[in-house]
């Protein structure tokens, strides 16, 4: 996993330091120059301007450099306390096997553990698709998610067998769900949030890559996820007794993502841009832009709670019908 930071503090000096690290860690300056031109898709003159800091690197260019040269750019960032506006991006290496998924689980756990140290931490989640932490405590569903990630990136068509998934990943998924239940949460849902997951189960089953027994297990687990979600809505609490609120929206302009308020002076936004890749930012302008989107959807949507029991049951039952139809 590579984490990188772009800052408002001495960007030119930071950029120069980055290129110094690349050249000092790799032999053959002419080869490095050619590699850099290929990675960045630029001319020699353009590379020179980037190397001297005259032309700022884009976030995408930093990701490419970090991945290609296996550099942990956050390690280059000196005096972090002086960087008041920090953009943090995290990318994962290509998935080759189930072992690579451990990076994702560990990084997500660290984010949640940081929030749990603060009693007033708040999580806002835009659920265009059902949040992963909602079903990572279900062994079959979490195994299915890991299976899809590996198959998607390896372009293979193996049968899905929950028992073939490393148990360590199942346990770590269960830990993530438990951690998420210890944070005050507001979730912004759309009616079709479960559609993609249900469609994936149907597709794998229809293509004979899943037994009926396994499919029925996944259906039972989906019903358990819905039971807990309904209980959260009506009790207005998470399983661990933290305040919970659902806002049901007709649509979401924000992509799948989360705003994590860790404390009065620290908030982070996480945007998903791939199956298990995401950008994480603590830049105040990005955080505030996400907050504005949440405020808009709070006004446009419908808050579902104990006073809206009929609407809550209708929302859950409409999803149950889709699950039963599998």
Provide the fold topology:
Layout: E1 2-7, H1 11-25, H2 29-40, H3 44-52, H4 59-69, E2 86-91, H5 98-116, E3 122-127, H6 139-154, H7 167-180, E4 184-190, H8 195-206, H9 212-235, E5 244-249, E6 257-263, E7 266-272, E8 278-281, H10 284-300, E9 302-304, H11 309-324
Parallel strand pairs: 3-4, 4-5
Antiparallel strand pairs: 1-2, 2-8, 3-6, 5-9, 6-7, 7-8
Helix pairs in contact: 5-7, 6-7, 9-11
In short:
The chain is an alpha+beta fold. 51% of the residues lie in helices and 16% in strands.
What does this structure look like?
The protein is an alpha+beta fold and 326 residues long. It has two domains: 88 residues, Orthogonal Bundle (434 Repressor (Amino-terminal Domain)); 231 residues, no CATH class. The chain has a nine-stranded mixed sheet with strand order 1-2-8-7-6-3-4-5-9, with helices on both faces. Strand 7 and strand 8 form a beta hairpin. It is globular, with a radius of gyration of 22 Å.
Count of structural domains: 2
The beta-strand count equals 9
- Count up the helices: 11
How much beta, percentage-wise?
15-25%
Mean of pLDDT = 82
- Helix percent reads 40-55%
Shape: globular
Ranges where pLDDT stays below 50 over 5 or more residues in a row are 1-11, 77-86
- Biggest sheet: strand arrangement: 1-2-8-7-6-3-4-5-9
Return the string of H and E elements: EHHHHEHEHHEHHEEEEHEH
Secondary-structure class = alpha+beta
Rg over CA atoms, rounded to whole Å, is: 22 Å
């Amino acid at each position: 996993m590579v984490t990188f930071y772009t800052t408002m503090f001495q960007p030119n000096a930071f950029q120069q330091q980055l290129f110094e690290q690349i050249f000092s860690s790799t032999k053959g300056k002419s080869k490095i120059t050619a590699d850099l031109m290929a990675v960045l898709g630029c001319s020699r003159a353009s590379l020179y301007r980037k190397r001297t800091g005259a032309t700022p690197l884009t976030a995408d260019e930093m990701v490419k450099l970090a991945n290609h040269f296996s550099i942990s750019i956050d390690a280059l960032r000196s005096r972090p306390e002086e960087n008041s506006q920090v953009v943090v991006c995290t990318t994962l290496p290509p998935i080759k096997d189930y072992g690579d998924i451990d990076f994702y689980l560990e990084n997500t756990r660290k984010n949640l553990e940081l929030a749990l140290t603060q009693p007033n931490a708040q999580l806002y989640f835009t659920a265009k698709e059902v949040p992963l932490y909602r079903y990572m405590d279900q062994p079959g569903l979490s195994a299915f998610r890991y299976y899809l990630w590996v198959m998607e990136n390896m372009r293979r068509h193996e049968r899905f067998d929950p028992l073939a998934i490393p148990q360590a990943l199942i346990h770590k998924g269960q830990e993530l769900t438990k951690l998420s239940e210890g944070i005050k949460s507001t979730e912004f849902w759309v009616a079709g949030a479960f559609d993609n997951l249900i469609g994936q189960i149907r597709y794998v089953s229809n293509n004979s890559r899943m037994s009926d027994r396994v499919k029925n297990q996944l259906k039972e687990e989906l019903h358990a996820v819905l039971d807990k979600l309904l209980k959260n809505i009506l009790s207005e609490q998470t399983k661990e007794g933290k305040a919970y609120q659902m806002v049901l929206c007709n649509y979401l302009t924000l992509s799948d993502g989360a705003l994590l308020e860790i404390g009065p002076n620290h908030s982070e936004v996480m945007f998903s841009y791939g199956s298990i890749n995401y950008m994480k930012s603590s830049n105040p302008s990005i955080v505030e832009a996400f907050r504005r989107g949440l405020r808009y959807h709070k006004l446009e949507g419908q808050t579902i709670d104990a006073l809206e029991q009929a609407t809550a049951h209708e929302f859950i039952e409409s999803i149950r019908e889709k699950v039963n139809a599998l």
